[in-house]
Amino acid sequence: MELLADRAFRQVWLAGALLGVQRWLELLAIGVYVFDRTGSPFQVALMTMLRILPMALFSAFAGALADRVSRRLLLQISIVAMMAVSGGLGLLALTGAIQLWHIGVGALLGGLFWATDMPVRRTLLGEIAGSERLGAGMGLDAATNNATRMLGPVLGGFLLQWIGLDGSFFVGTALFAVSLVLLARVDFAETHAAGIGRNVLRNILEGLQHLRTDRALVGTLAITVIFNIWGFPFTSMVPVIGRDIMGLEAGAVGLLMSAEGAGALIGALAIAFRARRVFYRRIYYYGTFAFLALVLVFGAIGLPSASAVVLLGIGIAGACFSSMQSTITLLSAPPAIRGRIMGVVSVCIGTGVLGFLHIGLLADWLGAPLAVMLTAAQGLAAIVLAGLIWPELRR
Predict the structure, then answer these.
(1) CA-to-CA distance for 205 and 221, rounded, in angstroms?
(2) CA-to-CA distance for 261 and 314, rounded, in angstroms?
(3) What distance in Å separates the CA atoms of residue 326 and residue 53, rounded to the nearest whole number?
(4) Count helices and strands in the chain by DSSP H and E runs
(5) Cα–Cα distance between 149 and 266 in angstroms, integer?
(6) Stated pTM of the model
(7) CA–CA separation, 201 vs 198, rounded Å?
(8) 192 in a structural domain
(9) How confident is the model at residue 1 (pLDDT cuts 50, 70, 90)?
(10) Residue 194 falls within a domain, yes or no?
(11) Residue 393 pLDDT
(12) 203: CATH
């Protein structure tokens, strides 16, 4: 592919792939470990809530800053900080001193890092790709992220089973280090507004004012909110259902969860190579609808083999959301404020903290399978309403 022949794009893309593996490896390992320690689905969901909360609180500021200074430098600083966090948690786990609150603090700090992904790393990747290659670039990045959702849980499950929680954290530290080396070799002249902004709040407001002029972009953000409140939180229940309902070992839970990543990889690659720009919004809307419908089915099954097939379909449908979300946003936003608009997207993703709280409480009350089904049904109702309010999404 032409994009991969571009060294700057390739280095940022590979760094993102390694960071994605670290993210999903850690999520699975922590989810299984916390459920084994507490037996509480809510505690499992709480760790993911803590990871998502900073996205709602700080992504807009990260986006405003990213439009003013070097995105690559911001990303490198963030990775160095996360290397220290991951290594510290590994040492605590190795010495047997780790507590749940340590893991919670680590999840919160990890959330601060992931709050920069949309406005910093993905915006930088889109800028390197350019407007003519943007759809393919975002599709390839989404496909890679989805591949990490297949590889990361498998690694996390088996690492936890074979070498413990400390090994999972140390492998994550190594992945951070390699991604830092890759970013250090990127040679690309970034474009951003002149000078360091003295008023970050004003920069954020400029991004919000642009949204008032673009109904389709507002609808895109609404779907992002729906997906992250009623769709994506189901992932926190996969380890719970795998361990509690299906009786699987940690490695097998990782394999089950990786089925979604495999489907997402298939879907994202198909979109990257075959999707036409005229269909982007419909792919985004109807793919999200299918995702929620299949999540509802997953909650009703309870059998490993059938659940793996449904998770494969969930991944394919989810790729429609993840591939098109950044593509539609970057194509809609003027280049000078793309970081700010992507920061707003991250804030919308951060609303997922409400979804994880919701599904965690429901799971403690009614059980994980019924909680998954109820949240998916609510999401289906919300997305139908969004399609009526913003018919541009279906055209």
Answers:
(1) 16
(2) 9
(3) 20
(4) 16, 0
(5) 12
(6) 0.72
(7) 9
(8) no
(9) low
(10) no
(11) 76
(12) 1.20.1250.20
Pinpoint the alpha helices (H) of 185-279. 200-211, 215-226, 238-240, 250-274
What is the number of domains present in the chain?
A: 1
Residues 6+ apart with CB under 8 A from 294: 310, 313, 314, 317
Measuring CA to CA, which residue among 232, 295, 282 is closest to residue 45? 232
Q: Taking phi first (over 0 means left), then psi (-120 to 50 degrees means alpha), and beta for anything else, what does residue 249 get?
A: beta
Given a contact cutoff of 8 angstroms between Cβ atoms, the answer to whether 114 and 86 are in contact is: no
Q: How many CB atoms lie within 10 A of CB 213?
A: 8
Classify the phi-psi angles of 302: left when phi > 0, otherwise alpha if psi is within -120 to 50, otherwise beta: left
- Residues 291 and 239 sit within 8 Å (Cβ to Cβ): no
**Res 189 pLDDT > 70:** no
Q: What is the pLDDT of residue 292?
A: 97
The residue written with tokens 């990361």 in the block is 152
- Do 24 and 149 contact (CB within 8 A), yes or no? yes
d(CA 182, CA 148): 17
Whether 161 is in a domain gets the answer yes
pLDDT, tens digit, for every residue of 344-381? 777 787 788 889 889 989 998 999 999 999 999 999 99
Q: How far apart are the first and last CA of the chain?
A: 30
Nearest-CA neighbor of 311 among 291, 325, 288?
291
User: 38-69 pLDDT, tens per residue?
Assistant: 888 888 888 878 887 777 677 667 666 766 77
Report how far Cα 75 is from the mean position of its chain's Cα atoms. 16
**Structural domain contains residue 166:** yes
pLDDT at position 86 over 80:
yes
Instruction: Give residue 136's domain range.
Output: 2-185+199-394
Q: Rounded distance, CA 341 to CA 178, Å?
A: 29
- The residue among 149, 155, 154 whose CA lies nearest residue 174 is 155
Q: Distance between CA atoms of 170 and 114, rounded to whole angstroms?
A: 19
